[in-house]
Design goal:
By secondary structure, the protein is mainly α. The protein has 6 helices and 3 strands. A 3-stranded antiparallel β-sheet has the order 1-3-2. The termini are far apart.
Length: 146
């Protein structure tokens, strides 16, 4: 980190986020995926099938890039788009059994990256950091129309 910039909490957070993001991206690349792919798979696992507009809103991924991400996930047979049961203009995105299984690989990779990246912190410090970041994220994330 540039000398003196460590006194600025926002800058330090951005710097550490960038470093963590690089390591996470490298881990995801080993699985043939991107971080956004993991977000989509996890959202579908947690919330069930949903249309693309709702998925874009819930994952905070713009609609245009979401289409490309879904195309890749569909080619990998991790998700599938089906006609929406009540809106013939829309498609619903479904997690496939292969997609659910891939989440297990993502969990293992995440555990490895987390262990390596956060090694300088004790377990208690890691929990506190996680809790603080989660609180900030929840406070600053606008509500969704779900």
């Amino acid at each position: 980190m540039p000398a003196g910039a460590d006194r600025w909490t926002g800058y330090a957070l951005a710097w550490v986020t960038s470093l963590a993001g690089q390591q996470y991206a490298e881990g995801m690349a080993k699985l043939g995926l991107q971080a956004s792919h993991a977000a989509i798979l996890q959202m579908l696992h947690e919330a069930g099938p949903m249309n693309q507009n709702r998925l874009a809103e819930r994952t905070r991924i713009d609609k245009a890039p979401l289409v490309g991400l879904l195309n890749t996930l569909e080619q990998l047979t991790l998700v599938e788009r089906r006609p929406h049961p009540s809106d013939r203009r829309a498609f619903e995105v479904h997690l496939t059994p292969q997609g659910a299984a891939k989440l297990s690989d993502i969990e293992q990779m995440n555990a490895q990256v987390t262990e390596t990246f956060f090694e300088p912190l004790s377990s208690a410090e890691q929990r506190v950091l996680h809790d603080l970041l989660t609180r900030l994220a929840r406070h600053h994330t606008p509500p969704t129309n779900s």
